[in-house]
Amino acid sequence: MKLQLHWQILIAMVVGVIVGVVFQIVYDGEPTGWLFGAIVSLGTIFIHLLRMVIVPLIFSSIVSGVASVGEGKRIGRLGAKTFAYYFISSLLAILIGIVVTNAFKPGVGANIPVGEEFDPSTLSTPRSAGQILIDMIPLNPIEAMSSGHMLGIIFFSIFLGFAITRIGDKSRGTLQGFFEAFFEAMMKITQVVISFAPFGVFGLIVATVASAGIGLFITLGLYMITILTGFLIHLFVVLPLLFYFGTGINPVYHFRAMSSAMVTAFSTCSSNATLPVTMSDVENKAGVSNTISSFVLPMGATVNMNGTALYECAGVIFISQVLGMQLDVSQQFLIVLTALLSAVGAAGIPAAGVVVIFIVTQAIGFTDAQVGLIIGTMLAVDRPIDMFRTMINIFSDSVGAVIVAKSEGETNLYPALT
């Protein structure tokens, strides 16, 4: 237990495979008994814990994040530029996720058990883009929270966060402080839940391997290759192009400037933990002023999750392929919209993307019981994915900071080059 979490998860996965194979051999692919039931319960408990934190984590994260940009000039030109970059970069990441997953088809023919019989007729098919926007507005925000209507929760959270920025100083300070404290508490709860991951992974892997066999890991390997391919395209093609067109500077300089932050993000899997290093690199190596970096980067650690958005989108399409369902254009558009909005609420902590992916599956119409085992199986290879995901998140934030700084007339960028 003194090992780092990713090593604990790796060990749990290996032991889970061994135990799962034993159960498969002994029970000929149909394991039963109290011991097997107890082990499987570990995975079920972990999935329930993940589901428990979704609504309060997303709600508090979005409200506190949006409310924090409401002082003075932060709701003006600077804010408009920052959020325009967030929108464009996240949308491009999501589209890459759709393209690579449809191209590689990692879930087609996969033998991963599901927890509940799947009925394709239950999938949501929006009638139009306008209907999606209408459905985003909850008639009762409390009911939306209790029923898990995620688009409604996200819409209300953004609206409430914006409203907090427009009220008097005393009330704004009280509410903003409350939601920031609430978000910190939910992050702590989420960290505790994630610390249970080795036990959950062990139970889920045993259940999956005992039923599906070790051929499962061929599917997981292709799934991981698909996600990493999307990450590499976004990191080394899309973001450098955005950087070049936004600043006119060779992107290689920015990669060099952000090396420390990228290594920190890769090792910690936490945008929040990396934030001090990111700000140091952006200010001291990229030459961005503290005025810009102190606004763009903290907000980016909350709302600009390119890697997470790409992962969510690709992950949901992978799940639909495992379930044998071909999503049509309108359903994939709903994935794009939900992933774009839910990425705003992804906490900057390790494995937060695993929690948030439930939001997108719920928006499409998959029940948690149908996708829980699949998502739990995906968690077995989530650590290396999370490392790249976090690195892309913070690199995108830093690109946005330099682009905004350049547009604001800052000229002393990359002082070591002059």
Count of helical stretches:
18
Poorly predicted tracts of residues = 122-128
Strand content: under 5%
CATH topology: Proton glutamate symport protein
- Helix fraction by DSSP (H/I, runs of at least 4): over 70%
Largest sheet: none
Number of strands: 0
Report the C-alpha radius of gyration, rounded: 21 Å
Measure the end-to-end span.
49 Å
Shape: globular
> What's the number of structural domains?
1
Second CATH tier, the architecture: Orthogonal Bundle
Structural class determined from secondary elements: mainly alpha
Overall pLDDT confidence = 78
CATH class term? Mainly Alpha
SSE string, helix = H, strand = E? Answer: HHHHHHHHHHHHHHHHHH
Describe the structure.
This protein has helices spanning 5-27, 34-67, 77-104, 129-136, 141-147, 150-165, 169-195, 197-212, 216-247, 251-257, 259-268, 271-285, 290-303, 306-322, 329-342, 352-364, 368-378, 382-407. It starts with a helix and ends in an 11-residue tail after the last helix. It is 76% helix and 0% strand. It is an all-alpha fold. The longest helix is centred in the first third of the chain and has 34 residues, at 34-67. The chain has a single domain, classed as Proton glutamate symport protein, CATH 1.10.3860.
